[in-house]
Task: structure prediction
Amino acid sequence: MDYNKFFSADVPSFLRSPVREIFRKVDLSAICSFAGGYPAAVTFPTEQIPGLAATVLEKYGTKALQYGATQGVPELRQAIASRYGVPVSQVQITTSSQQGIDVCSRVFLDPGDIVLAKSPVYLGALQSFRAYRAEVMDIPSGDSTSLRSVPAPPTAYGSGPIPLHLSGGGQAPEGMPLTSAKFIYVIPDFNNPSGETMTLEEREEIVRIAREMDLLIVEDSPYRELRYSGEQVKTIRELAPERTLHLGSFSKIFAPGFRLGWIIGPEELLEQIYVCKQCLDLCPPVLDQYMACEFLESGALDANLEKTIAEYRRRRDLMLGLLEKYMPAGASWTHPEGGLFLWLTLPEGIDTVALYDEALSAGVAYVAGSFFYPDGSHRNTMRLNFSFIEESKMEPGIKLLAGLAANSLKHR
Ligand SMILES: Cc1ncc(COP(=O)(O)O)c(C=O)c1O
Result:
């Protein structure tokens, strides 16, 4: 039977995640894998889970097993509102921050629209933007005239500047698809994949551009609480609350299996997100929300976070030391102040996509950096995760990678 005719017009735009493909094909536990982005299982409060479940059932009874409000249970919304100093009306609970990204895409993007983002871009976000047939382009820099015309992505409509129809609307010229930029997507703290953190000035520049172009900002922030060094910088939401949707997540500060996150944003925007979420999942998982709320309100989250931060700081420092020790001259890498990743740049001419099969056979996995670039460029880069790999595999893994890089350098 030919099933193709049944698929919607969106389906050809679905991107497969190369990271998930790696997981499908290879038993990562058998090799040294820097590929995934999983938290370390030792950071999960495993022993506290039965107690949390018992407390929640005692406190809330069958309510904890019933459907709940689409905005999230009031207790968790209030706990998030208090933690981040915002009114509860500006908090929407999501079934993970990936859903937060997807619901923003669904509510704001039409086919042909543009999302402005700073490359390299988180793969899950690229997948979501593409699924709604939007294009991702680099955030323009410069004065307001150059902001109004940005280079087109080569794949979509041919290259060359596309006049942006700013959020106010306007007619597209004949033959040109209606194209408008709706939001800027950024991960200001400990970016996935680059590990970098935006300075206050860079955040202010994003706000300036967004105000100049009258755009929304989606601030994806699942790692913000995982800072190992340096000073906390203001969130973009704090700088521009009127136009920012700030996405948070329990995945890296509690456990990703709970699939819980939140959006903080202007009430008028959350109202549409609320309606959209009704058809997505009716409500976020109720038992999970009560357990997360209990974990947070009892102070256990902050205690666990302290241990998590110490654990990841050690792993980050271990990886940085090993890179210093083994990587050949000409290689460079980011020094993340938090999060789970760092970004390795090898000398020009080394192709990390081409090198990948050889690396796997040698027993080491990574994610090629070009997967995070909408145009597939930067083939001499890779993302390395330091949170998940067993510590005993860190040194052999980096040694293998460095050997492969040195060997490719010789044969360039
Ligand atoms: C930048 C970023 N945003 C969102 C997510 C999704 O996280 P979750 O859906 O588990 O909250 C991730 C996961 O790795 C991420 O790195």
Remarks:
- The chain has two domains: 4-45+302-410, 51-298.
